[in-house]
Structures are given as structure tokens and as C-alpha cells.
Amino acid sequence: MRKFIYTLLLSCLILPLTAKDYKVATTAEFNSTVKTLQPGDCIILAKGIWKDAELVFFGEGTKEQPITLRVEESGKTTLEGLSSLKLYGNYLIVDGLVFVNGYTPNGDVIEFRKGTAKTANNSIVRNCVIDRYNQPNRLEQDTWISLWGQNNQVVNCYLGGKTNLGTTLIVWPNGEGHSQNYHRIYRNYFAARPRLGSNGGETMRIGTSHYSMENSNTIVEGNYFEHCNGEVEVLSVKSCENRIINNTFFECEGSVVLRHGNRNEVSGNYFLGNHKPSTGGVRVINEGHKVFNNYFHALKGKDFRGPLVIMNGVPNSVQNRYHQVKNVEIYFNTWVDCELPWQLCVGSDEERTAIPLTTKIAHNIVYCPEETELIKAFDKTTGIQFADNLLIGSKGVEKGTGFVQGSVEKSKSANELPQISSNLKTNDNVPFVTTDIDGRSRGNEKAIGAIENKGKATIEIASSKNCGPSWYTPAPAPTPNGKIISVKPEKDALLEAVKTSKQGDIIELKEGVYFNSKKIAIPHTLTIRAAKDAKSKPVLQVDPANNALSVLEVGSNLNLNLNGITLDGNLSNGSVKYAIATIKEGIASSYNMYIDNCEFANFKNEEGGAIYKAYKGSFADTLTVTNSIFRDSYRGFALNDEKEAQGFYSAEFMTFENVVFKNIQQWAIDFLRGGNDESTLGGHLTINHCVFDNVNNNDGQTIIKQTGLVTINITNSVFFNSPKVKYPVRLAGRHNKISFSNIYNAGKTSLTNEATEGAGMIYTDPKFKTGTYVPEPKSPLINKASDSTNIGLKH
After folding, report:
1. Residue 735 burial (CB < 10 Å; 0-12/13-18/19+)?
2. Can you tell me the mean pLDDT for 604-633?
3. Do both 222 and 359 map to the same domain?
4. Does the N terminus or the C terminus of the chain have fewer Cβ atoms within 10 A?
5. Is the pLDDT confidence value at 194 over 80?
6. H/E/C letters for each residue in 643-708?
């Protein structure tokens, strides 16, 4: 009997204890319970809202019996307010957390460590959601997921709507315990990342420049990236021995960038641009990379955002600049309907003089029948070997060394994606290429391009349907569907109407003067327009005696439409400083501004005043002005507050069409993007059918000031009646251009760094009818615009 009892007690000691589930309803309960967790245990967050919950999950599980943190019911438990999660220990699983309606208080939403000494290893975060969980200040930096330790995974998560500074997900292979980490990032849904307007808007980064020679061995596999537009680098690789495989990049304004580090693989990915501007593919820097079995479709990015970009390097480069491209293999890829698909030696300048060496581009297909130019080289390509590439453009099949003659076969994939393949084969021994992009086996004789034209696909293309938590659907953005509010011209009537308005309302103004005792703060998407029966434009004014800096103050995360109104700064007791200004603080995200058929006049405050003021930190994704006049004011549009020379700028797309600037004491536009940061290629200024009359007529001055804008296109416009001006505009960069325009008594355009003055320029008197901008019958402007109408205004 004693022997039996002894045996029973011994078996209890060596058998694992029964795993337990612990349901907790408060942070205090969580904190006390987590200390007791044993291998196999599970701590369950009760349904409901967990407010300001800074959770620390830790324990020592085993491979067979991990410790789990999960929710009571998927989608019914949310962490809100100032909430975050840190985890450390071994064999931990985090499942089903949802972070919404708040922001992290400590730099990371989910971090695989606590402090620097306690790290998570062999752990998984899965089926979690971080949705629009943004700092109230868009320039306050944070990271949504920070991967430390080794052998960790992020699986089936949804990360979308990040609007503030900071990379969405970072892998940190920083030294002992973190390098050679073998992390896996699999089947996640990386949803919309709006344009940030600065560096620091990557969706994913693997490594840092300082530790870029460390092996990370991270696998990024089967993820779906959609509208990730934060900056030029969607996925930035800054370490060695990583694999970016079988992902889909859908309408992303950026690229997979092999920025620092060596021996990385990019294979089996779909880059789908859908003909959207700035959509990119792969950019190559450094050594030993393999880029194969990728499919690039309808990409329209230029320069650093090109479909394939191979960079020039800096001789003896420091760690954070551009190392020379060497020993790179680019095999079995397909480009279809892409603009300028291959761009080689990009960035060649006085610093980046090291051309690519021992690089091979072979067995690829380029099928872009509408494109006249398929390859553009910015330096010598003697270090690049071409072999067995089939290139078809508008001029037919490319000929020469390294190119083959043939045709392509067209088909559609299971998800209706146009696919291009070829019967051309190669016997080239490429041991690392054993399948095609969709998993079809490749034998000794391989079809060129990304797709074998025989066999059944075995890899499911990553999409919104098979990535992220299956149970989660993000809440749709609010659709403006407001009511029409009719307002009469009484003191503060408009001010009160805006205060009581709802998202998407339309405020209609009768003709008359709308005097406001203080500025009108625009809190949400709104339209302010003239009533249909108004015989003249309603006039908006504000009393500067009450310290009102502007007539209108624009918040963030909104659209403001102004139509058919006048903003007037001319009052007997002084001139208000700005017609429109952005908010100075609490700028959580971008805004859009649309001005049509409006007049702005008499904003004459000479203490830094302007018609439009964008404060530091504000960012207009779109600022469009049409059919309007700006006159008799001190300055025009001031987007010049980002003075730190760090690459920040105040608007992505700024457009003026059929607009007059008249009698402006200083510049019409001052648009600044300071510094030489290359992670942002933004700042787009378009001017079409505009007139600049007596603007900044001062010795040595400029009508349109700009610094660092990548794209400027001025067409069909008139600059005149400013005889003291030195430059109507100073253009710098090969995407800066003026054409089909009239410059008379307004200086001469300055052109540097490949900026161009195109066809259709006229330098004689425009000959307008007196008091108008209508050309006389003998005007040189008649029918000379690029669209065969008159240069100048459209009437």
C-alpha cells in the first residue's frame, strides 16, 4: 500500500499540473493573476472596454504548453484610451486584442520586451487589431508593434490608419539577444497609411542603419499591404539575411527598399499599382541581394519610387548613406504596363558616383506596350550584365546584347489579375529558383518571367480576404451626409452656425456681410457656400480687435469646401493677420482644402500676415484652388513654417487653376520643403491657366517662392506687370517645368538641376483688354495654350 501511495505521489510530481483559465475584468485583477501563470495557463480579458490599460504580460511557458493571453469573445473586448501591452518571457501567445479610440502612452502599442533586460522569445501575437490608434499630435512619434528578442511571430493582425510620425512595425535586430532573430511576420493586413509629409512614415522597418550589418533573418511572408502611402519606403530593410516573400502591395505609394544591409531576398511578391501615381516596386542598395519571381503591374512611380530602381552608391560610404550595389541577382521577374520599368544608377550625382558592379539582370519579362522608354540609366551600366530578357514596348521588342526576341501569352489569374508569360525557356542553372511566383515547380528548363505557363498554382495570393483577423471589419470612415443650413447676414450668425453644425453639413449664405466677433474654428468636414439666389458673393469678416488671427481656422482630419464667397480683411480698426490659418496644436492628421469661385482681398497685415497660413506640423493632403482671385494683400499662400530642414513640408498636392493673384506686396506662394531627406518625394505644385499681376514687385524678388519641391508643373499662365522682379519662379530638379506660359516685365525663370523650360513660352506683351484679363484680338496668347485655348484665364 505504501508503495502504491509513493508511486502516486511521484507521478503527481512529474506530470504537468492541469492548465487553468483565469478570467479577469480589471487591470488590477490582471496584474495579480499574471504573476501566478504556469505553463498551459490562459488569462482571459472580459468583454467590454478596458480603459487606460497598460498591460504587462509575462511568464515562462513551454513549446508544448505556452501561456496565453486572450479575450473572452473576439471583437467584444477593446483596449482604449491610454492603453498598451508589453510582453516578456518564453512561449507566450497574445490573441485577439483590439486597440481603438486612443493612443499609446509609452512609445509602443505592443512591445516584445519590458525595459532593456526583459525580452520575449518564442512568442506569438496573433489576431490582434490596432486601428487608427493615433497620437493627438501627428508629429508625436510612436510605433505600433516593436519586435525584440528571437523567434517571435506577428500573425493575422490588422494594422491600419496610422497618421502620426513613426513606423507601424519595427524589427529591432540590435545586438546580442536580438540579432539572428528569425522572427516571422505572416498573413497580416497592413491597411491605409496616409501620406505623412516627412520621413518616419514607413509601414515596416527591419533593422537600423547603425546595426545594419547584423543578420536579422526575419521572414515577412504572405502579408497584404494596401494604400501604405506614408513615405517612399513602405518596407525598409536595414539589416542582413531577411526574406520578403509572397506579399501583395496594392496601390502603395512607395517601395520595398533594401536600404542598408546585405544578402536579402525579395521573391514571389505582387506589386499592384492599378495605374495610380507614385506606386513603386523594389529599390536596391548594398550587396548580395536576390530579387526574383516578382510581378509588377501598372506601377507609375518615378525616381526612388520606380518599379525597379538600382541605386548608385557613395564611395567608402558611411553606415547611414548609400553603399555600392554589388553581386545582386535580379531574375525571373515580370513587369506589365509599368511606367519606365527599369531605372538604373538612380541618384547619380557628385556624391553618389559608385556605379553598380557584378550585378546581373536575367530571364525577366517587361511587357509595357504603351511605353516608349523601358530602361533609363543615369550613369554607366558597365557593371550590370543583362541576359535573356524579353522587353516589349511601343517600339516593339528590345534588341541588343542581353535581350531575346519573342512574344508573350496573356491570361488571367484566379483573382482576375492580368498575367503575362512566355514560351521562351532558359537552362541557366539558378539553384535558388525552384518554383514560380505562384508555387508552380520549375524544372531544369525554366520559363522566363515570374510565371511558368504550365502547372497549377499552389500559393494563394495575399489579399484582404486571407490576411488579418477573420472576424474583424474596420469601422468605415464617416461619410459626410449632412444637411443644408441657411444663414442670414447677421453678426456672429456664421460663427454660431459652424459651432452647431455636424459632420458634412452645408452652410449656405445669403448675400451680405457676415461680421464675426472672433475667428471661426472649423471642427469637421464642412461646406460653406453662397446660396443659389445670392446676386453677389457673401462677405466674411472678423474683428481683429478681439485678437482674432484669422477669419477661418482649419482643424485636422477634415475637408473644407469654400464656394462662391469673399473673405475680406479690410476693417477700420485694422487688418486681421490671415484669411485662413491652420490650428497650431492638436494636429492629429491631415486635412483637405477646396476653394472655388472665391475672392480674398485686403489682408494687409505686414507683421507676417498672409492670405493663407499653414502652421508647423499641419499637413494638407490636397489644397486645390480654382476660379478665384486673391488681391490687394501683403502675402499669398504661406506654406513655409517647416524651417528645421528635416524634409517636412505642409502639403502634398497644391493646385491652382484659373486663379488670379493681383497687387500682392510680397510673394504669391511660398512653399518650403527643407533639407535633403529622400524618404519623402513630395511637395507637388501645379499651376495652370493662372495670372500673376503686380506680385512682389521688389528688387531681386520672386513671385513664386519654393524650396525643395520635387514636382512643379506651371502651364498656360501669365506673369507680368512686375518689372522689378528677378524671377517669376526658381525651378530646381528634373521634375520642375514651366511651359506654354507668358512672362513679360516679370524677370526670367531660374532653371537648375535639370529643371526645364518647355515649349510654348512667350515673352511679349500679353495685350489684355483694359481692366480685364481677356486677350485682345491680336494678343499673342490666343489659342497658344497646351490645350489649344488661350494662355491665361479660361473665360
Report:
1. middle
2. 96
3. yes
4. N
5. yes
6. CCCCCCCCEEEEEEECCEEEEECCCCEEEECCCCCCCCCCCEEEEECCEEEEECCCCCCEEEEEEC
Q: Does residue 117 lie in a domain region?
A: yes
Specify if 291 maps to a domain. yes
Per residue in 324-348, pLDDT tens? 999 999 999 999 999 999 999 999 9
Boundary (domain end) residue, out of 581, 606, 634: 634
Prediction pTM value: 0.93
pLDDT tier, 679 (very low <50, low <70, confident <90, very high otherwise): low
Instruction: Give the phi and the psi of residue 672 in degrees, each rounded to 5.
Output: -115, 130
Radius of gyration of the chain (CA): 30
Residue in the block written with cell 485662413: 580
Task: Cell numbers for 138, please give them.
Answer: 501627428
CATH, residue 339: 2.160.20.10
Amino acid identity at 56: V
Q: Which ranges of 96-177 would DSSP assign to H, the alpha helix?
A: none
Report the number of distinct structural domains present in the chain. Answer: 2
User: Would you state the cell numbers that stand for residue 162, as one nine-digit string?
Assistant: 496610422
All three cell numbers of 500, joined, read 452647431
Residues 309 and 211 in one domain: yes
Domain co-membership, 136 together with 232: yes
- Domain membership of residue 165 (yes or no) is yes
Say yes or no: 235 and 302 in one domain: yes
Largest CA distance in the chain: 122
Domain interval for residue 545: 484-634
pLDDT of residue 680: 65
Residues 159 and 232 in one domain: yes
Instruction: Name which of 702, 651, 696, 704 is nearest 673 in CA terms.
Output: 651
- Indicate whether 116 belongs to any domain: yes
Sequence letter at residue 218: T
Nine-digit cell string for 426? 532558359
DSSP result, 456-475: ---SPPP-TTTSS-TT--PP
The C-alpha angle 388, 393, 396, rounded to 5 degrees, equals 80
